[in-house]
């Protein structure tokens, strides 16, 4: 049953990105990020109140690391999703396992340990897929956003490392969610105050913004249920179903059809990221 909730969460998350892509072009990405963050913070506050979780953290450095990486990854991904194919943007967001594999690779090198060769193979295959997406004939502007998408994936891997360490240190997930949501809201608010010419009421209360809020909240809620009830390996694998939804939604709502090389690159990236995730989880379990 846990697997059902994970697939449902990827459906909602992909739907949230459809809403983001459908927003008026006059809205800046940091304005969208602020509105999204306010929704998540509201949900976090409700969860804190309902569970009576204390907000005092014993790991401020890790919370800060999680916040910085997470804010960077999410805000960049919103920017990227508005400028390139939805399927490509979603795929690049899920390159996190590849960068996480690079961290493991570097750590093993530093410690002088034997490097798991299967992980190395997955990394080579995954970044070969990236080269298919980011190939020489891609328009310069698209190449920029593909590069930013990769940066989002790299930051996402840093966020994952921080989350894992916070979990090992015994920090409650709701506390971590609150501080992350607060960091997102403050950074989005600061960017909006500095650069925005003013949020319009018709934008703030528009249907896409409302749907983004609803889908984001549902995505967070179902994801938490899925990871709590499901098996870790299966949940980690099923999270890549978000790419399938992104391909379908991109075609249905925006008439987006990836060319052959891009589609092949997407398949390779997803397969390699999935393989790296499964290998890493099994390796940790065995080792």
Automatic annotation (TrEMBL):
The principal localisation class reads: membrane
Q: Among its keywords, does the record have Heme? A: no
Which segments does the entry list as coiled coil?
A: none
The protein's matches in SUPFAM superfamilies, at most eight in alphabetical order, are given as: Multidrug resistance efflux transporter EmrE
Question: Carries keyword NAD?
Answer: no
Alphabetical keyword list: Membrane, Transmembrane, Transmembrane helix
Stated membrane topology is:
Multi-pass membrane protein
Q: Where in the cell is it found?
A: Membrane
| Gene Ontology cellular component terms for the protein in this record | membrane
Tell me the ranges covered by the EamA domain, including all copies: 149-275
Q: Which residues cross the membrane?
A: 32-55, 67-85, 91-108, 115-134, 146-166, 178-197, 203-221, 233-254, 260-281
Query: What's the name of the protein?
Result: Putative membrane protein
